[in-house]
Design brief:
By secondary structure, the chain is mainly α. The chain is built from 22 helices and six strands. Helix 6 runs antiparallel to helix 7 and helix 7 crosses helix 16.
Length: 594
């Protein structure tokens, strides 16, 4: 009777057996009957789907494999029957009669003894354990040794489940992060392919005659990696990070290797300006130190505004433009009346309802860009839908990254804290994480035409924003957090940031052009000049270049003193936040004691 029941259950196959087990298990856990039934049916459907795909693979690849064997006259005389043949043979063995209850009993004992965290509900695949037991029985003739084979295989299987669950989590996290960055790339690509031509058409329509085109970070980064400094920049930047961590000068553990190109750019331009390789290396080191400190100082913003727990953004324009926004915020706070103006995305949604939603704002911004570019109705509407899509998709493609980063950053911080006496660490990551915020996307769309307008009216500017226009959000992302999403302040600080960036980028054109020549991007002796807003317009790079080879004393004095003051205000702001956190901890501790 028992044999017949077991055989009947086994004959149902995994697509029926596993749903039944899942339903029963769900009911034991006191799930609602409907929910348990739904879960079981979904799993059954999944196995049916797997069967269809495996069947497709077998019917298509099987004949091809057989033809390949015949073509190359492969004379191996044993054919692999695979699991579709091995499983039925195993379930027909004598060991199979008791294998399922034994495997379940082993699982229960291990759970009670806290030797595993695996609660196995996949009854069908107990055939693997049974196969081991069956072969031991055939080899020895001992039924009890066969049973022991099942038990040993079961123990190993459940422990592998424990061990690989951690590997699986890491793999899943890595895949999610990769998917997120692929998503960002796709959305940025959509933005570039739609807004880029519109910006170019706008420049041509208004006859803007700026004679140096911004190559943007997509042009500047490859030129930088082709420089001589790039050979040692990554290990140097990593070494600086390690030394600062050991000396407790930073909490940032940088894992964003790609964006070391920003530090490398500074070093490369110092090298070109001076001809000294060692001064170039010093440029990388100084920029790295400043970057890691900026990651510390803006941790408040990444945590509280962007809700990136345990994450720092020490790199690129987002980080080094942040101090300018801190200065602007401090000045506005001192002006009565102006300091009360607050216009943000939440207000827009409250005032305008559906017309204030990010998607609708994106649509209207696209229409405005299309009109400025002189597009027809068709092209304008297409651009509007594309910018609306960016507003909707950018926050969503950030989610997989955060799903992947959250467990990794928590585990990394926990591990580092246990090794370094409870010190709180931050994982340094790409500023692309900040682009997912709806206010950042809204501000980015505003600054596309605004950046071109600033470029036209700025005295002494020769650089036409182009390569960085589609990703102009990098320049103002940290400003959005510093100003708490207040678009009024963001437009003011962002305009100052863009103006300073364009002015510095213009002064750096000869060095940026030489970097492009060294990289083979353009030929020596050509009349082409190269400009780069991202990093080519960085105050950090400009100050270092002027320090080693002063050519513009007035500009250096103004930019140098202004930016150092901005860094000082940023440091003070971070210190106030640290003091606030300490006072909060003391208050919580006192509350617990009461």
């Amino acid at each position: 009777m028992f044999t017949e029941i077991m055989q009947y259950i086994l004959d149902l196959g995994p697509s029926v057996m596993l749903p039944i087990v899942i339903i029963l298990f769900s009911l034991v856990l006191r799930m609602k009957v409907g929910d348990a039934l739904k879960a079981g049916i979904h799993i059954g459907i999944g196995f049916v789907g797997i069967g269809l795909v495996v069947g497709l693979l077998t019917s298509s690849v099987g004949p091809a494999a057989q033809a390949m064997a015949e073509r190359f006259d492969i004379s191996l005389n044993v054919v692999d029957v695979g699991w579709p043949g091995a499983a039925p043979m195993t379930w027909a063995s004598q060991i199979a009669l008791v294998a399922i209850p034994i495997a379940i009993a082993v699982n229960i004992v291990m759970l009670l003894a806290k030797l595993t965290r695996v609660v196995n509900v996949d009854i069908w695949n107990i055939w693997h354990m049974t196969f081991s037991g069956a072969l031991v029985y055939i080899a020895t003739g001992s039924y009890w040794l066969g049973i022991a084979g099942v038990i040993v295989h079961a123990i190993i299987a459940y422990k592998l489940g424990d061990w690989f669950s951690k590997v699986g989590d890491a793999l899943k996290a890595g895949i999610h992060i990769g998917i997120g960055f692929v998503g960002i790339g796709l959305v940025v690509g959509l933005l570039t392919s739609s807004v880029g031509p519109a910006a170019q058409a706008m420049a041509e329509r208004f006859d803007i005659s700026l004679n140096v085109v911004d190559v943007g970070w997509p042009g500047a980064a490859p030129m930088t990696w082709a420089s001589q400094i790039a050979l040692v920049a990554i290990p140097i930047a990593i070494a600086v990070n390690i030394v600062m961590l050991l000396a407790k000068l930073t909490r940032v553990v940088n894992v964003d290797i790609w964006n070391i190109w920003h530090m490398t750019f500074s070093g490369a331009l110092v090298y070109i300006a001076t001809g000294s390789y060692w001064l170039g290396i010093a440029g990388v080191i100084v920029h790295a130190i400043i970057a890691y400190k900026l990651g510390d100082w803006f941790s408040k913003d990444t945590k509280e505004f962007f809700e990136l727990e345990g994450i720092a953004v020490p790199h690129g324009t987002s980080a080094y433009c942040g101090p300018i926004a801190v200065f602007v915020d401090a000045v506005i706070e001192k002006i009565p009346g102006i300091n009360k103006i607050n216009f943000n995305a939440v207000d827009m949604q409250k005032r305008f309802g559906a017309f204030g939603e990010p998607v609708t704002v994106g649509l209207f911004m696209g229409i405005m860009l299309g009109l400025l570019a002189g597009y027809g109705v068709k092209e304008t509407l297409q651009l509007a839908i594309q910018t609306a899509a960016v507003m909707l998709l950018m926050p969503r493609v950030i989610k997989p990254i955060m799903d992947g980063l959250t467990p990794i950053s928590k585990q990394a911080r926990k591990h580092l804290q246990s090794k370094f006496g409870g010190q709180d660490f931050l994982i340094g990551l790409d500023p692309a994480l900040l682009l997912g915020h709806s206010t950042v996307v809204s501000a980015s769309l505003i600054f596309i035409p605004l950046s071109i307008f600033i470029a036209i009216i700025l005295p002494g500017n020769e650089v036409l924003p182009f390569g960085d226009l589609a990703t102009i959000g990098f320049f103002i992302a940290m400003s959005v957090a510093i100003h708490q999403g207040n678009l009024f302040r963001i437009i003011i600080s962002g305009s100052i940031i863009i103006a300073i960036t364009l002015w510095i980028a213009t002064q750096m054109v000869p060095l940026t052009t030489q970097l492009a020549i060294n990289a083979g991007t353009i030929t020596d002796g050509s009349s082409i000049s190269v400009g780069a807003m991202d990093q080519g317009g960085s105050p950090i790079t400009y100050i270092m270049v002027q320090l080693v080879k002063l050519k513009q004393p007035i500009g250096f004095a103004f930019i140098g003193l202004f930016y150092l003051f901005c860094l000082f205000l940023t440091w003070k702001r971070a210190k106030r936040y640290e003091l606030f956190l300490k006072e909060q901890q003391i208050a919580q501790s006192d509350e617990i004691k009461k």
